[in-house]
Amino acid sequence: MKILVTGGAGFIGSNFIYYMQKAHPDYSLVCLDKLTYAGNLETLEEALKNPLFKFVKGDIADREFVFSLFEEEKFDIVVNFAAESHVDRSIENPGVFLTTNILGTQTLMDAARATGVKRYHQVSTDEVYGDLPLDRPDLFFTETTPIHTSSPYSASKASADLLVQAYHRTFGLPITISRCSNNYGPYHFPEKLIPLMIANALNDKPLPVYGQGLNVRDWLYVEDHCRAIDMIIHNGRVGEVYNIGGHNEKANIDVVKTIIKALGKSEDLITYVTDRAGHDMRYAIDPTKIHDELGWLPTTTFDEGIQKTIDWYLNNRAWWEKIISGEYQNYYEKMYGNR
Ligand code: NAD
Ligand code: DAU
Fold this sequence. Notes:
Elements: E1 2-6, H1 11-23, E2 28-33, E3 53-57, H2 63-73, E4 77-80, H3 87-92, H4 95-115, E5 119-125, H5 152-171, E6 175-180, E7 183-184, H6 193-202, E8 207-210, E9 216-218, E10 220-221, H7 222-235, E11 241-244, E12 249-251, H8 252-262, E13 270-273, H9 288-294, H10 302-315, H11 317-324, H12 328-336
Parallel strand pairs: 1-2, 1-4, 2-3, 4-5, 5-6, 6-11, 7-10, 8-13
Antiparallel strand pairs: 9-12
The protein binds nicotinamide-adenine-dinucleotide and 2'deoxy-thymidine-5'-diphospho-alpha-D-glucose.
Residues 6-7, 9-13, 33-36, 38-39, 59-61, 81-85, 100, 104, 123, 125, 157, 180, 182-183, 189 line the site of nicotinamide-adenine-dinucleotide.
């Protein structure tokens, strides 16, 4: 079995590669990644020691390159993690989100069709469903919740999902789509809430909470996401969408306070800053379908997962300190300097 993992030098893709190397030691894995600001080859250092793993640098939207790679490698399965993934960046610069997230998806599917790939799996997000109100805790996203996007990022992911479904119906491409809630864990780029708060708290820097910090996210430990994708690509029904999430809703301010407490820092570090434009209020996944059909359930509780994550950031300072000492400084100044 040969699997192409696009975006494997990023947060979830790299965790997926490590997960698959353990779960299926006989599989060949190829990682295709452009190594944008979010991709980091150092993350794959251990994976690269395995002779059944190969890294290829390239752009999923580069047609000629993608086609020649597919012709050469003859993949059985494609799992597409590659994306521009940060909502705040999509508000600053939407264009690249459309190119990578939509045209890149199209390019991969065209190459998959041309070379007889047996399963094309699109890693999507719960953000395609828009948001839920805070005063209706009885509401959850199901696979039939209408697509209703808020940011250029979520609109680009939703566009890709529609295209994936169209390729299934029109061309018979054997696809599956997963829509997961917020992930956290090792190798999470420090522009995102949890790693940003851990890094800032460790450096005694202000913790920038958007708005009043009341927005709710449904957190899932990254390994549980990886296991769900493994189940879907092997046993999921072709043409289907599967939501992934573990009923673990938390207000941002509570997540930040948990991190502060675990690190023994002061809540005085919390700084309320101007809200994100179009900020989604609440995400909450109903995972009934993946549970009933594939038997998936999350195995890591938030208390366990956040402690493991904090420990990882404490034990791997070199990984994130290198990131935040480079180009990231300009990004941080631009996003938070006058907020
Ligand atoms: P990430 O930003 O950490 O990683 C993205 C990776 O894709 C990077 O390695 C980057 O170099 C690569 N990439 C970007 N553009 C590329 C291109 N044109 N060609 C090839 N590679 C390219 O993102 P992540 O958080 O790991 O998210 C991975 C996927 O999961 C995304 O599709 C995202 O929409 C989805 N997702 C993320 C979450 C989350 O909480 N992080 C939740 C649900 C779904
Ligand atoms: O739900 C899945 C999505 O989760 C994925 O599709 C996205 O790729 C991923 O980035 C994530 O999107 P969010 O926008 O929810 O994640 P982020 O970590 O950027 O923000 C989480 C919440 O924290 C959100 O309500 C905004 C808030 N926030 C974020 C940052 C970076 C802050 O209050 N302060 C911050 O500095």
